[in-house]
Design a protein that fits this description.
Shape: globular
Distance between the termini: 4 Å
Structural class: mainly beta
Largest sheet: 9 strands, mixed
Strand content: 15-25%
Helix content: under 10%
Number of strands: 13
């Protein structure tokens, strides 16, 4: 069995999405300050982090798009962990249309769209002209019964306009989304299992995950 990490590292000052604040990572209680509370030679660090949900590699639940949708606390573990995975090779700097998924059985599966765009992570190129799914692709995946759809790009939607049809269609059908994946070239074309569980937070729609795959 092999584990493949598909997540970006979150660190202080990381910009994931332009216009959203970067995370602030610091000590709430430093090791030095903690020494006053314990016997000599004993110390602890208590960290503090301030971030928006859309940071690093993150999961979108229906609540992200719809006020009455399932939030992080509502989504069951059976939709987040040990999911049968399918990778679709769609290396492009533009639209990934429905034909990319033609003939594929996506029912009950995680479908990860490999574009290679993660090579631009933390550069200006990452935010512009990125790969995205079309509305027709979202329809194909939703109608096919996909459980979760992920992409190694800046957004699963085309961000050049103000509409978000892919988020609307997938999340409206209860299909979860993971954005800003990395390392999908490491996945086999054959079977693998996918994991992407966030904290169980009420009234929150998006949160970073430690996404990974398990390969036999």
């Amino acid at each position: 069995m092999r584990l493949i990490d598909l997540s970006h590292v979150i660190e202080d000052g990381l910009v994931t999405y332009k216009g959203l604040p970067a995370p602030h990572v610091c000590d709430f209680l430093s090791r030095e300050a903690s020494q006053a509370n314990y016997e000599a030679g004993t110390e602890f660090q208590i960290g503090q982090i301030t971030l928006v949900g859309n940071t690093g590699t993150y999961l979108d639940t229906p609540f992200h798009r719809y006020a009455d949708g399932e939030d992080l606390a509502d989504v069951g573990l059976e939709r987040l962990v040990d999911l049968p995975g399918l990778v679709v090779r769609a290396r492009t700097d533009g639209a990934v249309d429905a034909d990319a998924f033609e003939g594929l059985d996506v029912a009950g599966r995680t479908v990860l769209v490999h574009t290679g765009w993660d090579r631009h992570w933390r550069t200006e190129a990452y935010y512009e002209n990125h790969p995205f799914l079309t509305e027709a692709a979202a329809d194909r995946l939703a109608e096919g019964g996909a459980m979760l759809v992920g992409i190694d790009s800046h957004n699963i939607d085309d961000t050049r306009g103000r509409t978000r049809p892919v988020h609307s269609r997938l999340l409206g059908e209860g299909v979860l989304i993971v954005e800003h994946l990395r390392g999908l070239e490491q996945l086999p074309d054959g079977p693998f299992r996918f994991f992407a569980a966030p904290p169980k937070v009420k009234a929150f729609g998006t949160f970073p995950v430690r996404a990974f795959a398990m390969v036999d």
